[in-house]
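PROTEIN FOLDING TASK:
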Amino acid sequence: MSKNSKVLNLKDKISGNEVDLSLCNLTEVPVRELALFTKATVVDLSCNNITSLPPEFCNLTHLVKVDLSKNQLTCLPEDVGNLVNLQHLDLYNNKLTVLPVSFSQLRSLKWLDLKDNPLEAGLAKAAGDCLDEKQCKQCASKVLEHMNGLQDEVDRAREKRLLREKELERKREVKQREREARDKEARKQEKAEEKEKRRREYNAQMAALAAREQQKKKSEEKKKKNGQAAADKKAVVELAPKPRRSLIGLMFKLLLLLLLGLAGVAATCRLTDLQKETACVPVNIFVDDSLSWAKEQEGVVRQLVQNLSSAAKEFLESTQTSKN
């Protein structure tokens, strides 16, 4: 069936401000078509197989009276409260258990029938029996009052939830600020520790450098001192006076040489053919006189020979020591 045919059929069912769609075996409400006829404020959708109302149904704010009795409705749209002009609502014999909280906004509602629905206890008590016109009017009033109470509870719950969320958000912000402050302090501490570490490293490097310089200076001073000591020692060795020879030894040597010379001359003049020579005559006379005197002074000569022997021995030992 095309849209135009639907429009034509809907026109056929309009009488004045009423639209009669009862007993049409509908499973859904023709919302688009109803929206085209804003002067049709009364809609009869009873005795169909409608299980739910689309959200767009709540945009039909021109409706004043709606009959949805004897359908299969299990719930109403959440925004049903947008039907601010609705005065008469028949929901008899459906499968409703609760009403949306926005139902409390139907402040124009004067008549309501909810009998033969499996309503929850509190709503059923507020709805009453709806057996006549008066009870249906009371039903509308009491159900609105009941729904206003639920709306207040929902509002309070929502307000509490918002307060909790706001408090949680505030706590999150506080924690975030504390975390940022800790992070900032940690970064500051880390920078300070890094700076202190660099300072210690720098001081250690300077100390090591100073120690090396000091060690180098000491080494140079030690080398200089050792060199000076060696130079001084060399100078001392060079400047040290050679040990003086013993004067006695020198005199002994001279005397020994003299004696050897005299002995040689005496031996030459006495034992060789030169004894008759003129030069040897005095020598031979001296030797003879000396021998005579020596015989006379034999003890003295012996003592002198011993002294000479000791002196000669000492001289030889000192000479040997000097060579070593």
In short: Confidence is low (pLDDT under 50) at residues 1-8. Helices lie at 3-12, 31-36, 121-127, 133-239, 247-271, 280-296, 298-323. Residues 10-154 form a domain with the Leucine-rich repeat, LRR (right-handed beta-alpha superhelix) fold (CATH 3.80.10.10). Strands lie at 14-15, 18-20, 42-44, 65-67, 88-90, 111-113.
